[in-house]
Design a protein that fits this description.
The structure is a single chain. The protein has a domain of 137 residues: Hypothetical protein, domain 2 (Endonuclease III, domain 1). A two-stranded antiparallel ribbon has the order 1-2. The radius of gyration is 19 Å and the shape is globular. The protein is mainly α. 45% of the residues lie in helices and 3% in strands. This is DNA-3-methyladenine glycosylase I. GO terms for molecular function: DNA-3-methyladenine glycosylase activity; metal ion binding. Keywords: Metal-binding, Zinc.
Length: 208
């Protein structure tokens, strides 16, 4: 048998798919036009405003146990139902609003997740007295980010996401488990889990 040295070994298979436009994307963003547009224009772009961050936390909570495509397709309905994710307006929601939302077919009708969104809006407002939600969440940016070659290399949680989850729970947030918070950190640019050969790798400006 002929032995090969590491230098002779074939390179690892790419996890990206080259689209008709010549751009490399992960499989999950390579077929559905909606997901492709989301990947190209929004996923991994830094979010540093309270309003935008509250929306992302809310949508990630609703996504728990579901596919992101479902949430993304219902995003306009979510925005209409939850007052465009204005924390102050959502914090004022009462039981009548919960009933209204449970009857709204344009969103995911889950009582626990609906209540969680209201709870998290109130916690977001409370955080304003100690620096605000944005600084709080971004303070958990790690010193390094993953460099995945394939989708299977992308972790689903990290020490930073565990720490963020615990910290948010201490200040009153719910539905913010470590896996959900890892997905949030990916989506808002705190970490960069774009595949190494993706055309979006390093595009956030946070990680070179």
């Amino acid at each position: 048998m002929i032995e090969t040295s590491p230098a002779d070994a074939p390179p690892p298979l790419s996890g990206s798919i080259i689209g008709a436009d010549g751009l490399a994307r992960p499989a999950w963003a390579s077929v559905d036009p909606m997901l492709r547009d989301y990947y190209d224009t929004e996923w991994g772009v830094p979010v540093r405003d309270e309003h935008g961050l509250f929306e992302r936390i809310s949508l990630e909570a609703f996504q728990s146990g579901l596919s992101w495509a479902i949430i993304l397709r219902k995003r306009p309905g979510f925005r209409a139902a939850f007052a465009d994710f204005d924390p102050e307006r959502v914090a004022a929601f009462d039981e009548d609003d919960v009933v209204r939302l449970l009857n709204d077919e344009k969103i995911v009708r889950n009582r626990l997740k609906i209540r969680a969104t209201i709870t998290n809006a109130r916690a977001t407002i409370a955080l304003r007295d100690s620096g605000g939600l944005v600084d709080f969440v971004w303070s958990f940016q790690p010193d390094a980010t993953p460099a995945p070659l394939t989708q299977s290399d992308v972790p689903t949680r990290s020490e930073a996401s565990v720490a963020l989850s615990k910290a948010l729970k201490k200040v009153g947030f719910v539905f913010v488990g470590p896996t959900t918070m890892f997905a949030l950190m990916e989506a808002i640019g705190i970490i960069d889990t774009h595949l190494v050969d993706s055309h979006r790798r390093g595009s956030s400006g946070v990680w070179s």
